[in-house]
Specification:
4 copies of one chain form a homotetramer. With 190 residues, chain A is mostly helical. Chain A has 2 domains: 46 residues, Arc Repressor Mutant, subunit A (Orthogonal Bundle); 135 residues, Orthogonal Bundle (Tetracycline Repressor, domain 2). In chain A, 76% of the residues lie in helices and 0% in strands. The first copy, chain A, is built from 9 helices and no strands. In chain A, helix 5 crosses helix 9 and helix 7 packs across helix 8. Chain A starts with a helix and ends with a helix. At the A-B interface, helix 1, helix 6, helix 8 and helix 9 of A face helix 1, helix 6, helix 8 and helix 9 of B. Chain A binds a DNA duplex (21 and 21 nucleotides) through helix 2 and helix 3.
DNA sequence: GATGAATGAGATTTCATTCAT
DNA sequence: TATGAATGAAATCTCATTCAT
C-alpha cells in the first residue's frame, strides 16, 4: 500500500463510519480497522481525530467544487447555466451519499470551524460570481448574494436528502426537473 | 422544585448543551449540573441519554407544529396562508435558536429513528393538507407532496440558518419577504 | 470505606508505586488497583495524575514540616536545637522511606513547580528563622540563610540516603551523632 | 557525520531532553530529531532506550571523575587537596548543568542499577583513597569512609543545586569559599 | 549503515449508568 | 424521590521498537 493510499484509506474509512455512526459513534480504532492500518498509523498522517475530520471536509468540499462547475460554460445562457449547476450538484450528492451525509453532519455540528466556512466559500465562489452576473444582466432578482446562494443550495440539499432518505421516495428525473424549475422560478425575474 | 420542573430542566439543559457542544460533547454530568439536579435524578425521569434526546425531539417538534399553524385560518387565500406558514416557522426558528440548532443536528445525525420521522410527519401534517388543497384548487403546482414539503421547508431552514450563523449577515424584514416570495414563486402556478 | 479513606488510599498507593517504579512507571491503573478503587474513582478526587502527585507532595511536605519541629523548644541552646532539627528530620526520613524517596524523585524532576518550592519554603521556615537567630546571637556563621539551609538539609539527606540505600551500610546511632556533629562544626563559629 | 558523531549526538540529545522533560517526557522520536538522526538509527548504536541512558550515565560519570582530580597533586596538603576536590566538582557541575541535572534525576530514580553504583564508585575512588589518607595522617576525623564521602558529596551537590535553581540566588565566589570551609570544618580534626 | 513509516500495546482520561443512603 | 460517589468499559493518543527499502 503506497503512502498516499493509507492517508486516503483513513479519510475514506472516517467518512463511511461517520455516516453510519456519527462523529461520536466513530472510534479511531474502528477507523483504523476499516482503513486496514494500525491505530497509531493514523497519527502519522494526522494530528488528531479532529484533524482527520477537518481535512476530510476540505477534500470533500474540493471535490464538490469541481463537480459543481463540470461542463459549465460561460457562453451558455443564465438559465441554462443555472440548471447545469443545480443538476450538477444534485447528481454529485446523490451519487456520493457518504460525502453528502458527512457534509450535512459536519455543517450542522458545533465543530464547524471558521476554516470550514472559508473552505465552503471557495468551493461555491464560481456560483456566487455567476449569480452576480445574472443579477447584473437583469435575469436574476437583485437579492443579497449570500442569501440567494443559501436558498438555492438549501433547495438542492433538500431534494438530495429526500432522495437519499430511506423512505422509498426516490426522486425521479421528472421530479428533479420540476424541482430545478421551482428553484429557478424563485430567483429569476418574471 | 416541582416534578415537572426537573424533567423540563433536564430537557432544557440537554438542548442548550447540545447546541453548544454537540451530542458527543454533552456529558450527562454536564446536563445534571446545568439542570440543577443530581446525575442520578435524570434516570428517574428518563431511561437513558438517548431517551432524553428523543423525548426532547418530540417536545420540540410539538412546539414547532403549534407555532406553524398560529393565526392560520382556513378562510385565507392559499397565497396568504403560504406566507403565513413560511413566516411563522421562520420566526419560530430564529426566536428559538437552541431548538432550531438542536433539530438540525438531530435531523442530520444517524441517530434519527423511524419514530423521529413519524413525529416530524405529525407536526407538518397540516401543511401537507394545505399543499394538497392548493394543488387541488389549481393554485399550486402538482408536485409530489412530500417533495414540495421538503423543498419549502429546506428553503426556510436555509434562511434561518443564514440569519443565525455568526457571519454578521442578519436577515432583514425585507429580505425575509423576498425569500418568502421566492419560495412562493417556485411552487405557485404562473 | 469512608470518603477520606479513598482519597488517602490513592495518595498512599501513588507514593508507594512511585518509589518502586518512578513517575513514568506508575500507571494510573496500577494506582487504582493498589488503592482498591476503580480507575475512574481517582478522577473524582483529583483532576489528573499530575494533581495527585502535586497534592501528595504538599501533604508529605506538611508532615515533614511537623516532624521537623517536634519537641523543639525556643528555650534550648542553639546547639541543642540544631541537633534536634538534624535528628528529627533524619529520623522522619528513615522511618518513612517511601515519603523520602518520593520527595527526592519529585524534587529532582523537571516537574517541580513553583508551587512546590513555595510548599518547601513553608515547611522549613521555622528552621530558617532559627538559623537567623543563631547568626544574630553570634553562634552561627553569618552565611547567606538560604545557602546555610540548603547545605544543612543536603547533609541530612545524604545521610538518610546512605542509610536507605541497599548497600548494607546502615547508619549507626554513633554515626548519626558524628554526622550531626560534622554538620554543626561546619556552621558554628569556632 | 562520522560514526562516533551520531552516537555522541544521540547521547547529548538524550541528556538535554531528560533535563528538560524528564525520563518519561523524553520520547525516542524527540531524541532522534534533536540528534539529527532517524529514529531507527539510534538502535544501531544502542539496544534500547534504557541502554542509551545507562551508557550516558557511564560517560558522564567518567567525565566527572576526570574533572574531580584535575590539577590534583599528591604533594599538596590534605586541606589544599580537599578544597581542590570540592571546588573542582562544584565547578564541573555548574559549568555542565545538563550533566548535573541528569545525574541527579538518574541517581534518585528507581532505575539506578547496581552497575550504576559501581560506576559511581570508580569515579570517586581517588577521593575515597584521599579521605583514608587524611584519616591516617590524623587530619581528618575517623569517620566511616563511605559516610564521609556521602556527606561531602551531598554538601557540594546542595551548593550546585542552589546555584543552578532558578530562584535568582547565584552563589558568589565568596560563598563558594564559605561553603567549602564549612564542609572542611565538618570533617577535619579540630 | 541509515531511514522513517508502521506497529500495537498500553497510557491517561471520560462518561453513561448504578445503587446505597 | 433525590442524591452523587463509584464504577469500569471504552475513547483518544503516545511511543519504544521493528523492518523493508
Amino acid at each position: 500500500m503506497a503512502v498516499e493510499d493509507k492517508r486516503g484509506a483513513v479519510l475514506q474509512a472516517m467518512m463511511e463510519l461517520i455516516t453510519e455512526h456519527g462523529f461520536h459513534g466513530t472510534a479511531m480504532s474502528m477507523v483504523a480497522k476499516r482503513a486496514g492500518v494500525a491505530a497509531g498509523t493514523i497519527y502519522h498522517y494526522f494530528e488528531s481525530k479532529e484533524e482527520v475530520i477537518n481535512q476530510l471536509y476540505g477534500e470533500v468540499m474540493q471535490r464538490v467544487g469541481l463537480a459543481l462547475v463540470q461542463e459549465d460554460s460561460n457562453k451558455g445562457s443564465i438559465k441554462d447555466r443555472f440548471f447545469r449547476y443545480y443538476t450538477n450538484i444534485y447528481h454529485y450528492y446523490i451519487q456520493h451519499p457518504d460525502e453528502f451525509r458527512f457534509l450535512e453532519q459536519y455543517t450542522n455540528s458545533p465543530y464547524t470551524s471558521q476554516l470550514a466556512r472559508e473552505e465552503n466559500g471557495k468551493a461555491f465562489e464560481p456560483v456566487l460570481l455567476f449569480l452576480q452576473q445574472g443579477i447584473e444582466l437583469g435575469v436574476l432578482r437583485p437579492l443579497e448574494l449570500r442569501m440567494m446562494m443559501a436558498l438555492v443550495h438549501g433547495h438542492v440539499i433538500s431534494l438530495a436528502k429526500l432522495h437519499l432518505s430511506d423512505n422509498n421516495l426516490p426522486v425521479t428525473q421528472e421530479q428533479l426537473e420540476q424541482a430545478a424549475q421551482s428553484c429557478w422560478d424563485g430567483v429569476r425575474i418574471n
